[in-house]
Write the structure tokens for this entry.
Amino acid sequence: MAEKRKKLRILAAGDIHGDTRQAEYLAEKARKENVDLVILAGDLTFAETSTKNIIGPFVKARKKVLLIPGNHETLATADFLAEMYPDTKNLHGYAIKSGDVGIFGAGSANIGLFQIPEREMFNVLKQGWDRIKGLDKKIMVTHVHPSGSKMEKFTQFFSGSEAVTKAIKTFKPDIAICSHVHEAEGIEEKIGNTRVINVGKKGKIIEI
């Protein structure tokens, strides 16, 4: 009889916006829930003014952190945070493997202080997907939500990304994690067979 596969347990959150108390709350949740890793889906800071003690609590809890920039911080800031702390990676244009699960991502958004063109967004996601396309399970991480989604209807200001929708339909990840629209926090929906989750500031435990 084949041995049952151990599921990867993740705490995913976004839009912390420099709230150190929220970072500490999430780190404690990650510890209590015994997650394998933490994913932070962008807008870690508020306009780049608040990088202090956002990643530190997760490191103190001995959790591996994957992060991407949002539209409130540059790629350079995300790189800085990833390089500053152990077991922390910037997932923008990159991918990691954990057993038979591949995780890839692209940060920034199509609106805000730090924007990314739609074509570049898709190409960055493809760059990460190419690294893990042979794996059994896949998770895609973006800050911005997909266009045409339910969560897009929660805001008049932030249109979804056509590139993210195209990537979901092209690469068919099992799970697509995003944030960005605060009002859509916790919303889940399906695009094809992909489970799309707006994880928001409170965070979400995800198993795959």
